Amino acid sequence: MDWSEPDVVFMQRSLEVAERGRGKVRPNPLVGCILVKDGEIISEGWHDHLGGLHAEQMAIANAEKNGKTTNGSIAYITLEPCNHFGRTPPCTEALLWAGIQEVVIAHIDPNPTVKGGGIQALKDAEINVRLGCCENDAAIQMQSFLNWCHKKIPLVTLKMATDCDGYIDDRSKDSQRFSSETTLNAVHKLRSYSDAILVGVNTVIRDNPLLNVRRINKDHVKDPLRIVMDGNLRIPLESKLLNDGMPTLIVYVNENKDKIKRLEQKKGVELLKINKCDEGNIEPNELLKILGERGLQELLIEGGTETARRFVKSNLIDRILMFRSPISFKEPVKGLTGQEIVGLGLERLPDIYYEDDCLERWCRGSWPAKNWP
Hints:
With about 375 residues, the chain is an alpha/beta fold. It has 2 domains: about 5-140, Cytidine Deaminase, domain 2 (3-Layer(aba) Sandwich); about 150-365, Dihydrofolate Reductase, subunit A (3-Layer(aba) Sandwich). The chain has 12 helices and 16 strands.
């Protein structure tokens, strides 16, 4: 179908407003909706947070609040409206109630609970439906949701911080931050977009991290699940992430009954025994499958080289963010090699600068959004 310039402009605006929900609606997809009447936008809406109004419902509510009549208007929506009762009533009913005469949809919803049902409900009510405007742009924006619907595993983003030569740590010093404040802000925003953060046990022993979201407005932002790959259950019981009550998954392969008993007494801690790969370590493919079964769509790896390499060897990395600082380590610890990164077959994107730090980016497919992270 050939789309008119106004159609594209209006749908692009819907995609823009949908971004306002990023980091707050997971596991739901981002959705935007604008209402147009006589060629003018009369209202905008987006899925703002989990359990809140859906985009269509917000657009209709905002129109009412501002004294705008929705009857006879056109709705531009980035994703097929739902036709079932979930956390909110069906959006198709809201559109019918508002007197919408036409609905333009960017992308069909592949989720079996919707998948064409919303479109059919609108057509049954004799509302004109057009599908596919800016479909590729919508697919890019919702890539983790669509990937999960089709493959039932999360997309995997690897985040690493290095010195100017690509080394990840300095043995001559205690663990310390070396990235700029702007970089740290970007990392915490990236965490807010993730369903889970994964590290290896060596990172926990060395850094004792919290692995939560800070440095941003946390209204409606849920901290991601923390995952520690700890094959032999070496994690120190006094670790911060074992003692704040937040959800933490310890993945292991070898039994340690005494350690298991003590870990099970920790609030928020869950233990998961998983199969070994050929080298005797945790099998990353199986772990991704388990995380997918739990509905996780975005996995952020913040571990060291050993943890990263397990996923690299299995070609499971979809994006890499490497924050390179201008400092130089005295006793450096090696990161991934250039050959390993190139071997993933990812596309190299233009660098971004955060103060003096350089963000080097690679991805499989398209980058989620211009301002991501």
